[in-house]
Specification:
- The protein is mainly beta.
- The chain has one domain: Prolyl oligopeptidase, N-terminal domain (Methylamine Dehydrogenase, Chain H), CATH 2.130.10.
- It has 2 helices and 32 strands.
Length: about 500
């Protein structure tokens, strides 16, 4: 029994999208947060008969789901649509959630707090601005500090889109009492102040300083193919004071071509990193740049010099470990096949060796994409992704895989974690978090037998254990079994 428990790596898969209001309707776009005790908090958008609403639930550290709460209820306000949800969680287990509500050809950003006991605060419309006449506010992202303050960024138009209005990036702080501060327009770089800005990202350091990155235009017609988007960065102090806005996508080969999907991370010293996918005229590559604690922009770097670097690289995801090293994972497409890659960049150093993560036998027969990454206290990269068998119709199959790479770059075996009664065929878009003990928590979208998308979760039972330790346990268990057999044999005699 001890051996079985040790070798069983994951809890049984749990379906968490169980609210009666949408039990027969799709659930999409989940996001998760984790507290200091390993409890996870999940939000997603779920469809009902009339509209889409936002759901929230808490799952304990052992994978036991709690009651699902409906955070929004569009049916009471005329059939609105609530979507584009995001969540952050503080150490005490308080959840802070934002989403977009679309109603009457306009949209706004809403915020709510759910405390560790599951009690919900009043819902706030945080994009109803006095100073800025905006509309179509959407795509919010949220972060929190150790004091219970939350920080939200979003994009909003400063006029009618059809009459020349352009999207800008806005920021606001909501304190631990749920009171909003002043709204700040962040996208004020001189070369794009009259052009559109979209896709904001935010992270917060220990002092409550916000770091924001987004993609934007710096000239007319930048939306036309192949496109000429840039990546911008700003730091906002906890009092709302904004630093100089920097254009960070200044790598020589891609300065006049498309840069998109920025990702953002900050280490314990206040050094921030921006990672994005950019077009160099021939193919997409992964770029990264470091901005030090004084706001000094370092040289942008392109991740290259690995066998597949001449192909397209997309969808980067990042994590920072406790030694301030940056871990980046992404998907690479060679024209026929998607694969997942990883690189680690030690603090103030150049990137290390690029590793192909989806390196199982016959991986070229499958598409591996939608990667996500989290880093544990041992500086190990825990990675999940979705594998597709490249078949169509009822023969198609997508499964969620997990693997771990230790601090020396050694990779553990792959584990298929999406096998369950809830979704036998389609499992996709996984996300991962790790707790202080090194356990992994993974959520994803799974399609049930009726074709309805559900939100599923699995938890790794054991913490980080080295192969040597595993072998020792197995040997000890085998010896214990032998001793018991001898003991019972002697008793029979």
């Amino acid at each position: 029994m001890i051996l079985m428990l040790f070798l069983s790596a994951w809890t049984p898969v749990v379906k968490i999208s169980t609210h009666e209001a949408n039990s027969e309707w799709p659930n999409r776009n989940p996001h998760m947060g984790i507290d200091a005790e390993g409890n996870t908090y999940v939000v997603w958008e779920g469809y009902t008969v009339r509209d889409s609403v936002v759901f929230w639930t808490k799952v304990d550290a052992e994978g036991g789901p709690g009651t699902v709460m409906k955070l929004s209820d569009g049916e009471h306000i005329g059939g609105s649509k609530d979507y584009l949800v995001d969540i952050t969680v503080d150490r005490q287990g308080n959840s802070y959630v934002t989403w977009t509500r679309s109603l009457n050809n306009d949209s706004d950003v809403y915020w709510v707090k759910i405390n560790s006991s599951g009690e919900r605060s009043d819902i706030l419309n945080i994009s109803c601005l006095d100073e800025y006449a905006t509309n179509n506010n959407r795509s919010s992202q949220i972060a929190t500090d150790n004091e219970g303050n939350s920080y939200v960024v979003w994009q909003g138009f400063d006029g009618e889109r059809d009459s020349g209005g352009n999207a800008d990036i806005y920021w606001v702080k909501i304190d631990d009492r749920g009171e909003m501060g002043d709204t700040v327009k962040v996208s004020t770089h001189k070369d794009n102040i009259s052009y559109g800005d979209i896709n904001p990202q935010i992270t917060v350091d220990r002092q409550g300083n916000s770091y924001v990155a987004w993609q934007g235009c710096d000239k007319d017609d930048c939306w036309k193919e192949p496109g000429d988007f840039e990546i911008y960065w700003a730091r906002i102090g906890n009092s709302g004071t904004t630093s100089e806005v920097l254009k960070v996508s200044v790598f020589t080969d891609s300065i006049d071509i498309r840069a998109m999907t920025p990702q953002l991370a900050v280490d314990g010293s206040g050094t921030s990193y921006v990672v994005w996918s950019g077009l160099d005229g021939k193919n997409y590559d992964i770029y990264w740049v470091r901005i030090d604690a004084n706001g000094i922009l370092k040289d942008a770097q392109r991740i290259m010099n690995y066998p597949a670097s001449m192909y397209d690289d997309y969808n980067p995801r990042t994590a920072i470990d406790n030694s301030q090293a940056l871990h980046i994972v992404w998907e690479n497409f060679n024209g026929n096949d998607y694969e997942v890659y990883l690189v680690k960049i030690e603090s103030h150093e150049l990137p290390g060796k690029v590793q192909k993560i989806s390196n199982y036998a016959e991986s070229d027969l499958y598409d591996d994409y939608y990667p996500d990454i989290a880093v544990n206290a041992e500086r190990e990269s825990c990675i999940v992704w979705s594998r597709y068998n490249q078949k169509s119709g009822r023969q198609s199959e997508m499964t969620v895989f997990w693997t771990k790479i230790d601090s020396s770059g050694n990779q553990e075996d792959f584990e298929k974690i999406s096998s369950s009664q809830f979704s036998k065929r389609i499992n996709t878009q996984p996300q991962i978090a790790v707790d202080k003990a090194g356990k992994s928590y993974v959520i994803w979208i799974g399609e049930d037998d009726s074709g309805v998308e559900q939100i599923l979760l699995a938890v790794s039972i054991r913490s980080s254990v080295s192969p040597t330790a595993a072998l020792i346990v197995i040997v000890l268990c085998a010896l214990a079994i032998m001793v018991l057999r001898v003991f019972y044999a002697e008793r029979k005699e």
